Amino acid sequence: MKMKNKEYENSQSGMSKQIGQWFLCFLVYLIMLLGVLNRSPGFTDESDNFIGGMVVASGGRMYRDFVSQHMPVMYYICAVLKMLGADSVYEFRLYFYVVLAVMWSFVAMHYKKQFGQITAVGTGVFYITNLFTFYTCCILAEQVQSICFVVLLIEFLLFAERKKLDWNNCFMISGAVFLSFGAAFVSVFPVFAIAVAFLIVEIQECIRKKYGFLQSIREIWQTFWRAIVAILAPFALLIFVYAAEGTLSVFIYSAYTVNREIYPNYIAGYGSSIVMSFVEPVINYGMAIADGCRKLVTDFGITKEYLAIVRNVICYAVNVIFWVYYAKKKNIVQAVAIVYFTMMCGTRGFTHEFHSMPYVAVTMFMAAYLI
Fold first, then answer.
1. Average pLDDT of the segment spanning 316-320
2. Cα dihedral sign for 14, 16, 18, 21?
3. How many CB atoms lie within 10 A of CB 330?
């Protein structure tokens, strides 16, 4: 009896400690986020999220009662914030920052045993310090993408080490894929890149074990079927809901057709070619490095613009150091896959404006990991 009581006390003590650590982490993230609460007066995409959220909160149906070319997750998040009482830009952002702090804290506590507290907690800290630029403080899909892409990279690193996926890993991957793609259609590109990276690891394992073709196919299916089911389940539910509401065809037209065929006409053709969408980020990353290094010399001065250039170049340097480190310590082919994933995270940019936030988040994880 005494032994059982001792075990119970230890378990309770351990649980209390974990809750305390999570709450402390949450407070740190939230206090940092509050520092950018009113930095931007407002932004079109953010206002779009507000309005869509208010329509949904009042009983409206997405893509029927509210027309949009964006994916639906941000509208549903804002709908929840509206239901919780948010009425102004200030209140929406405040509630959203609480959500972000909870998400970053969950990621930090979930992975701290595998990567250590500096990497797990430091990633969110480093990322939030990069939100002190115009618009990055707004309620945008990029905020959700940022957390999700960090989770996908972490899960890949764990898989590359363990060569297996349990249900816990599958649920984390599923949540990251659904939330990122559900927040922004362009998430399909980094998701594709990390999926290829996972597949490369498994193919290498099959080659190491000298499996034949058919045996390799069975092994790959055995490894990934749980993840496939977990990833498809929330999308199947979303499609079922829209089909039941009679808005599925409008959703497909708004979120896919408009983005592929109409919207590119207003952004210099970006996204009009599926093939180039998988190539352009690689080209743009090379150009960003070249431009950053050039301006580091030609634009020297004690100005906030020059400090932004320095920050950009530091990020590029962190990327390269991490890639080389991983190639030397782990596997060069997998390192190449990580390189491609990093570049695809910057599908819309690498220079610290709001579109580049997912890339910045992944880079901040690399920085925390190297420390």
1. 96
2. negative
3. 14
Q: Print the SS3 string covering the chain.
A: CHHHHHHHHHHHHHHHHHHHHHHHHHHHHHHHHHCCCCCCCCCHHHHHHHHHHHHHHCCCCECCCECCCCCCHHHHHHHHHHHCCCCCHHHHHHHHHHHHHHHHHHHHHHHHHHHCHHHHHHHHHHHHHHHCCCCCCCCCHHHHHHHHHHHHHHHHHHHHHHCCCCHHHHHHHHHHHHHHHHHCHHHHHHHHHHHHHHHHHHHHHHHHCCCCHHHHHHHHHHHHHHHHHHHHHHHHHHHHHHHHHCCHHHHHHHHHHHHHHHHHHHCCCCCCCHHHHCCHHHHHHHHHHHHHHHHHHHCCCCCHHHHHHHHHHHHHHHHHHHHHHHHHHCCHHHHHHHHHHHHHHCCCCCCCCHHHHHHHHHHHHHHHHHC
Rounded Cα distance between 53 and 86, Å, is 10
pLDDT tier at 351 (50, 70, 90 boundaries)?
confident
pLDDT at 287 over 70: yes
Find tokens 């500096």 and name the residue.
Answer: 118
Residue type, 54: M
Query: Which pLDDT score, from 0 to 100, does residue 139 have?
Result: 87
- Band the pLDDT of 8: cuts 50, 70, 90: very low
Question: Which residues, at least 6 apart from 125, have a Cβ–Cβ distance to it below 8 Å?
Answer: 28, 29, 32
Q: Are 95 and 281 in contact (CB under 8 A)?
A: no
